[in-house]
UniProtKB/TrEMBL annotation:
Annotated EAL domain residues: 24-273
Annotated keywords: Membrane, Transmembrane, Transmembrane helix
Example of a GO MF term: catalytic activity
Protein name, as recorded: EAL domain-containing protein
Keyword presence, Transmembrane: yes
Residues represented out of the complete protein: 543 to 821 of 821
Superkingdom as given in the UniProt entry: Bacteria
Biological process terms in GO annotation: signal transduction
């Protein structure tokens, strides 16, 4: 009876463990397939100047719709793509798409997210250089976004890529700024071109004095070291006004436009000429 009981217990836990693994493997297989079947695409979110309302750039964001029609959020599948190394070919795809997009829209800056796994690859900067050459995109209009945690993971390898990118004239942006650690020292070491104030601060900037004080501190810091700023996740005119009052020059968020396909992006530009001024 004890033996049977033990076996039952074992049977009870084992399938549960396998279930999580199985789901992971299925997702990994689906990711691999998706890459071959061209299920990935890139959408573009406008970035605007808060004083003029002018469109200044676009952030390229990855999208995946699998063969069953299900749309997966990058927040869910990017971590698995990083674990399996699939983020390398996927990341190359995003970069190539974004550079082709930017090459024919010479007034725009194009920002592309890079994961820690890409940034510590010895050949990353060279891959970027090759892609710029092949697409005709200019280095000075390409911005690579990274988070502080990504840089910290393998500081030396990442810094070597960053130096090469900067040498090529590619811009560097610190994404989700304010959510990582020791932001001050990174700002100095990185010599980044701009910081993206995380959405969590922008969300409260119009109502919460503390959030506004944090934004003010970030703006002051950025100005002191000569770094540009952009506020992320702006959804309301009040948030945009507060950012502008704090002298944050640029913004990005649903208020100005959600991420859309390249074709829709151009329609948006034509329809509105200039994207929504704040007032
Ligand atoms: P992120 O780089 O911080 O991108 C901003 C995210 O905020 C995007 O989510 C965007 O759609 C969303 N967003 C923009 N405006 C607003 C707003 O006003 N309100 C709200 N609530 N959200 C807003 P998305 O596209 O789902 O991407 C999530 C994250 O996935 C990105 O955060 C980035 O970390 C990662 N990701 C996306 N594309 C790529 C990629 O090509 N490569 C890598 N490595 N990571 C990517
Ligand atoms: Mg980003
Ligand atoms: Mg961000
Ligand atoms: Mg993020």
């Amino acid at each position: 009876a004890a033996k049977a009981e033990g076996r039952r217990t074992w049977r009870f836990f084992e399938p549960a463990m396998n279930e999580a693994q199985r789901r992971r493997r299925a997702l990994e297989a689906a990711l691999r397939e998706g890459l071959h079947r061209n299920e990935f695409s890139v959408v573009y979110q406008p970035q605007v100047n808060l004083s003029s309302g002018r469109l200044t750039g676009a952030e390229a964001l990855l999208r995946w719709q699998d063969s069953s029609g299900t749309r997966h959020s990058p927040a869910d599948f990017v971590p698995l793509a990083e674990d399996t190394g699939l983020i390398l070919p996927i990341g190359e795809f995003v970069l190539a798409e974004a550079c082709r997009f930017g090459a024919v829209r010479p007034s725009l800056l194009v920002a592309v997210n890079a994961s820690a796994v890409q940034l510590r690859e010895p050949g990353f900067a060279r891959m970027v250089e090759r892609t710029l050459q092949q697409t005709g995109m200019s280095a000075s209009r390409l911005e690579i976004e990274m988070t502080e945690t990504a840089i910290l993971r393998d500081m030396e390898a990442v810094m070597s890529n960053i130096r090469l990118l900067r040498h090529m004239g590619v811009r560097i942006a610190l994404d989700d700024f304010g959510t990582g650690f020791s932001s001050l020292s990174h700002l100095r070491q990185l010599e980044c071109d701009r910081i993206k104030i995380d959405r969590s601060f922008v969300k409260e900037v119009a109502e919460q004095p503390q959030a506004r004080a944090m934004v003010r501190a970030m703006v002051g810091m950025a100005k002191a070291v000569g770094v540009e700023l952009i506020g992320e996740g702006v959804e309301t005119p009040a948030q945009a006004r507060a950012l502008r009052e704090e002298e944050c020059a640029e913004a990005q968020g649903f208020l100005f436009g959600a991420p859309v396909s390249a074709e829709e992006f151009d329609r948006l530009r034509l329809d509105r000429g200039e994207l929504a001024s704040v007032d």
